[in-house]
Each structure stands twice: as structure tokens, then as C-alpha cells.
Design the sequence.
């Protein structure tokens, strides 16, 4: 049911599994996609840093990696918004276990998108409409993430039983004596949730500055430090999900079946979708897709001063 009324009167002993959220194939495909995007972002940043330090000019930049990374960037921001929207719509049936996994997967997609933003920011800044569209999507993703954090925070504060829907955390009369007052782990989770929400807001502010600023100082340093930070967030979210999931770890709620460990049709389909980037890479390699090269260092000042708008030779070169 979507946006229904949760049943908060009866506390069940166990809940059914949900392979669509925490299945082995879903978790692996999300992790592999994020890992590939982070590796490509890191390789491009390191390559550009190395060429800049040696004052080398690459007339044929890595088109395959940049094209794939651009598609990964769009995919990750949409995936983050999509899974959080569906999760909120089903908050009347999702238990805190599945709700928290969705939140961690959205943080993984956010970190991956920010890593691609660090690499492709000059490409995004060329078009004002696309830049502000991405800015809007980043804001929507932040708003959904903060809403998820508020649900998780409320469930911790109220001591919500793990087998009740997450929406019951806002209902009156629901309380469990095993809540935060009697368990130190709840206190750690409570403050950890607050830190995560605040951290998301800080990262959004920095990402907004990086995307909108035209005069970026310490450009290479920001790229390297940001990549390390986003990589740390992605690794932390992945480890947390894998340790908590039934497929690879130990869930904090009693599940009625072992469905999240089985390789059903949906899990195999998630893994098969990983083949699509390989096809795109072959098409780019064969010259069927043209990718514009990135703006070179000597073109940045002219790009921002408006010279490119009046010089058709530079437009053709860019």
C-alpha cells in the first residue's frame, strides 16, 4: 500500500523478507556500479593531476571513461531520488530494517554522484540549464535524505520495535521498553544518525559551491580531498549495509524467511544490467558515439569571460 495507514497496534514476532530492497543481487549490483564509478573518477582525477604537474596536453582525452562516468552520474542521482521516494511512499509497511538499508543505499548513490561531480564539473558548467537542473536534483536528493534521517531518528528516540512499520514512529502510544534508555547501542545509533544528517547538509553545501563557483581556488586539492571523502562515505555505507543485511550479514530483526539470500529473477536481472555499460564502452570505442573533450586549462579563463561565445574557432575546438 502507498501512503496507507500503518498497523501500530499489534507487534509481530517476525517480518517477511524483501529481496527487492536487500537481496543479494540488488546489493551487489549497487556496490559494483558505485565502485566502478569511483574508480573511474579517481583515475581521471589522478591522470589530470599528473598531466598538469608535467604540463602535458592530451589531445585525445579519455572519452570512454568520461562518457561512462557521465552516464553513471545521471544514473546515481536518479537512483538515489527514486529509491527514497518509493521508500517514503511505503513507510506504512516498511520496517526500520529495510528503511535503513534504503537510506544507506541512497547515501552510497549520493557519494558516487558527488565523486563524478568532482571529475566532470567543467562539463556540467558549460550549460546553464543542465547545471541548474543538476543542482535541483541534488537539492531534492538532500531533502529526501533528511526526511529519511528524521524517520530513523524518530524511531530511535521513540524506541520503536523493529517489527513495526517505520511510520509508527510518529504515531502516539507506541513505545518499547528495550528502547534507547536501556541499551547503549541505541544512543550510539541516535547520535550517529544526527551526525549523518548534518554531514549530508555540509556535503551538499560544498557540492553546490563546487558546481556553481566559476573561480575555483585549489582546484586539484579540492578534487583529491573530495574524492577521498566521498570514497570513505561510500565504503562506510557499503560496509554498514552488508553487515546488516540478511544476504551477507546479520539483520537486527527476525525475518520470517530466507528470501534475501536466494538468487531470484529480480536478483539475476540486477546483475545482468551491469552489462549495459560494457556495450556503451564498445560503441564509444568504435566511434559510434562522439564525446566532446573537456575544457583545457588555457580555455578556462576565456570560457568564463565569455570569449568562447564570440570566437567560433574556440567553440569548435571546445
Sequence:
Amino acid at each position: 500500500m502507498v501512503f496507507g495507514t500503518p498497523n501500530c497496534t499489534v507487534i509481530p514476532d517476525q517480518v517477511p523478507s524483501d529481496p527487492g530492497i536487500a537481496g543479494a543481487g540488488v546489493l551487489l549490483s549497487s556496490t559494483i556500479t558505485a565502485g566502478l564509478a569511483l574508480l573511474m573518477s579517481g583515475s581521471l582525477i589522478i591522470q589530470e593531476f599528473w598531466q598538469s604537474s608535467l604540463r602535458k596536453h592530451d589531445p585525445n582525452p579519455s572519452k570512454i571513461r568520461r562518457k561512462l562516468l557521465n552516464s553513471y552520474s545521471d544514473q546515481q542521482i536518479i537512483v538515489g531520488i527514486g529509491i527514497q521516494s518509493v521508500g517514503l511512499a511505503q513507510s506504512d509497511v516498511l520496517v526500520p530494517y529495510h528503511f535503513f538499508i534504503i537510506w544507506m543505499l541512497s547515501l552510497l548513490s549520493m557519494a558516487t554522484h558527488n565523486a563524478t561531480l568532482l571529475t566532470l564539473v567543467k562539463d556540467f558548467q558549460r550549460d546553464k540549464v543542465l547545471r541548474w537542473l543538476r543542482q535541483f536534483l541534488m537539492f531534492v536528493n538532500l531533502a529526501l535524505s533528511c526526511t529519511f534521517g528524521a524517520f530513523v531518528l524518530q524511531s530511535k528516540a521513540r524506541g520503536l520495535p523493529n517489527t513495526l512499520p517505520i511510520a509508527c514512529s510518529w504515531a502516539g502510544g507506541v513505545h518499547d521498553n528495550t528502547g534507547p534508555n536501556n541499551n547503549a547501542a541505541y544512543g550510539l545509533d541516535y547520535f550517529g544518525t544526527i551526525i549523518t544528517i548534518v554531514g549530508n547538509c555540509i556535503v551538499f553545501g560544498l557540492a553546490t559551491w563546487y558546481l556553481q563557483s566559476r573561480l575555483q581556488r585549489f582546484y586539484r586539492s579540492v578534487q583529491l580531498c573530495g574524492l577521498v571523502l566521498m570514497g570513505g562515505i561510500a565504503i562506510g555505507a557499503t560496509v554498514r549495509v552488508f553487515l546488516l543485511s540478511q544476504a551477507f550479514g546479520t539483520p537486527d530483526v527476525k525475518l520470517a524467511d530466507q528470501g534475501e539470500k536466494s538468487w531470484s529473477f529480480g536478483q539475476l536481472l540486477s546483475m545482468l544490467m551491469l552489462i549495459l555499460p560494457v556495450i556503451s564502452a564498445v560503441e564509444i570505442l568504435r566511434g559510434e558515439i562522439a564525446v566532446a573533450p573537456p575544457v583545457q586549462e588555457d580555455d578556462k579563463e576565456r570560457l568564463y569571460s565569455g570569449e568562447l561565445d564570440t570566437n567560433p574557432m574556440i567553440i569548435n575546438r571546445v
